[in-house]
Design brief:
Elements lengths: L22 H5 L6 H21 L7 E4 L17 E4 L19 H8 L4 H17 L5 H6 L2 H8 L6 H15 L3 H9 L3 H6 L6 H15 L3 H9 L3 H20 L4 H20 L8 H14 L5 H17 L4 H6 L3 H7 L5 H14 L4 H9 L2 H9 L4 H14 L4 H9 L3 H10 L2 H17 L2 H9 L2 H7 L6 H20 L3 H10 L2 H7 L6 H14 L13 E4 L6 E3 L12 E2 L1
Parallel strand pairs: 1-2
Antiparallel strand pairs: 3-4, 4-5
Helix pairs in contact: 2-21, 3-4, 4-7, 6-7, 7-10, 10-13, 12-13, 12-14, 13-14, 13-15, 14-15, 15-18, 17-18, 18-21, 20-21, 21-24, 23-24, 23-26, 24-27, 27-28, 27-30
Length: 576
């Protein structure tokens, strides 16, 4: 193990030999340069896409209301991507056994729905809902193509019969849970405004079914989400949340059975909030997010994990998509709770909480400092050793953004002993986590002072970086070579380049650099060639320090080197 002891120089950052870089390339070495900020945002966006793909089972955009309680022989309902079933705690006010159309054909159901008879219409709407909510392959197209949507929308506007309204809302929920064209058909049929008005219904089961349908509409994408916001969904939803919170408190204090229904409704409201914050091309209107933020802060304190999970996702979408609102999210007071949730036993909660904090530390240095002051870093050691690879990746990604910050922030990462596990991830971790840990280490080389880079070198970082020279992604290979060049340049400055070269060659790094000269990417080829010529050539000035080497040291396995004459070294020289 080589011990490097580079002198801290406050007047000059000796990161790399500047003659080998253009001004635009050098600007990327520092976080506060524009190009570096753009690079961080690009990496965050890429990671967000990966996270969404990996988390389909944790947080679904659309949900079908599956009435398993009614007793179907085919309870094992298979759902498509982007859908999630629910067990149907919100049940029909009338027992389905009384429905005369329970076994009718789709044509008979549609005919009865348009008959004009209130009794027949109710039976038809209920039969339609049954078919859509209990079959393995719900006949959405069959009902939509037969023109039932206008009849269902009209049924929403009959408050005198809340049973009919409930059944119609349930049927529309399951139609909207289908493909994008089905969701759009529901909206185009005029269902959006009546469903929003049903959030004010005095019947909680009707209000909850409206929440469910609206969640499917908002979860379809940015366009329908924004149409729902423009139609005025936010304020009725906030009023419903206040009402549910009040009823939940009353039910809990009286041990009433109504508390279960309130929890179910609260969970669906949190899910609707998350879908109103979801998608970022374009992001949701900032005004709507600001209206919802106090509710999110309150929902984060709920004692129900499903509510907390969806709220964490909502906050992760807000901090990811609308970067100007990171400050407002911090001001809402959610950071301490998010940090505490990192200790949760459920990975489904840890993941979005960590994602939100990771987004926050991509902000300004002041915003990053707030996250660190809330106790984020002490939680990271356990997260870097988590048994879920995705959580390890997210933790490494968040730390890569901290290490792209100021030198005091880098020092906090060092003080929390987080560098050794990051190096361990690069050597032994899952590939996606290896990439993020590599970004973290290379960011530290880029922005750290000489003492911090010396610490990193002494943590045996060279074998870890050389490990990544053989990956397929040219971008990763390039940032690794940049960091190795920085280490070699700094070692050369203090007459220790020979030993750094030995370290690189000893772990197979030189062989990999030579192999990269055959790489198809021109930049990879040029960088590897330049490194070999500058530091591993046989010329007299090839980076070594032959004149500076002293005799063997004090018998403790160390060698003493005399100090260079540039005045920056400590009087006692440098030790390996």
């Amino acid at each position: 193990k080589l011990i490097f002891n580079f002198q801290l120089n406050h007047q000059q950052q000796s990161v790399m030999d500047s003659t080998s870089r253009t001004p635009s390339e050098r600007s990327r070495l520092y976080k506060n340069k524009d190009k570096d900020g753009e690079e961080l945002r690009r990496r965050r966006n890429d990671a967000s896409v990966e996270l969404r793909k990996a988390s389909k089972t944790d947080q679904m955009m659309k949900r079908r209301n599956i009435d398993l309680a009614a007793g179907d022989d085919d309870e094992d309902v298979a759902l498509g991507d982007g859908q999630q079933q629910a067990s149907g705690k919100v049940l029909s006010p009338l027992r389905d056994a009384n429905n005369v159309l329970a076994n009718a054909s789709i044509d008979d159901i549609c005919k009865a729905m348009k008959s004009g008879s209130p009794a027949d219409q109710f039976a038809a709407i209920q039969a339609c809902r049954r078919a859509l909510s209990k079959e393995r392959h719900p006949p959405i197209d069959e009902f939509v193509n037969r023109g039932v949507l206008p009849e269902l929308v009209v049924a929403l506007t009959k408050p005198a019969n809340h049973q009919v309204v409930f059944e119609a809302a349930w049927a529309l929920t399951n139609i909207a849970s289908g493909e994008a064209q089905h969701t759009r058909a529901v909206v185009n049929a005029g269902a959006l405004q009546p469903l929003i008005e049903l959030l004010n219904s005095e019947h909680l089961n009707v209000a909850e079914q409206a929440v469910w349908a609206l969640g499917n509409i908002a979860g379809d994408g940015s366009e329908l989400r924004d149409r729902a916001i423009k139609a005025g969904i936010v304020q009725p939803l906030l009023r419903l949340l206040q009402r549910v919170s009040r009823d939940s408190a009353i039910a809990a204090s009286s041990s009433s059975s109504g508390s279960d229904n309130s929890v179910s409704l609260l969970g669906n409201c949190a899910w609707l909030v998350s879908n109103l914050c979801r998608n970022k091309n374009p992001p949701p209107p900032a005004s709507a997010v600001l209206e919802l933020l106090p509710a999110m802060a309150a929902l984060l304190q709920a004692p129900h994990k499903e509510v907390v999970q969806d709220t964490c996702w909502a906050l992760s979408y807000v901090t990811d998509a609308v970067n100007d609102l990171i400050g407002q999210v911090i001001a809402s007071g959610v950071l301490p709770t998010l940090v505490a949730l990192l200790d949760h036993t459920e990975a489904a909660i840890v993941t979005p909480a960590l994602r939100t904090i990771g987004n926050i530390v991509t902000g300004t240095d002041q915003q990053t400092d707030t996250a660190l002051a809330a106790g984020f870093l002490p939680k990271c050691h356990r997260l870097l050793l988590h048994n879920k690879p995705n959580i390890v990746k997210e933790a490494a990604w968040a730390l890569s953004n901290v290490l792209a910050g100021s030198q005091p922030q880098i020092q906090q990462v060092i003080d929390n002993n987080l560098i050794p596990p990051l190096i361990g991830i690069v050597i032994n971790g899952d590939f996606k986590a290896k990439k993020e840990a590599t970004w973290a280490l290379t960011n530290m080389v880029t922005g750290g002072d000489e003492a911090q880079i010396s610490y990193l070198a002494n943590q045996n970082v060279v074998p870890a970086l050389c490990e990544m020279l053989s990956v397929q992604e040219a971008k990763i290979v390039c940032i690794v070579m940049e960091s190795l060049t920085a280490l070699l340049s700094l070692a050369k400055k203090y007459n220790q380049a020979d030993d750094m070269c030995i370290a690189i060659e000893g772990c197979g790094g030189l062989d990999k650099l030579e192999a990269l000269q055959e790489h198809e990417n021109p930049r990879v080829y040029e960088m590897s060639l330049q490194m070999i010529e500058e530091f591993f050539g046989n010329d007299e000035d090839g980076g070594g320090n032959e004149s500076g080497a002293a005799a063997a040291g004090d018998g403790a396995g160390q060698m003493m080197f005399s100090a260079p004459t540039d005045g920056n070294a400590p009087a006692g020289g440098f030790k390996f």
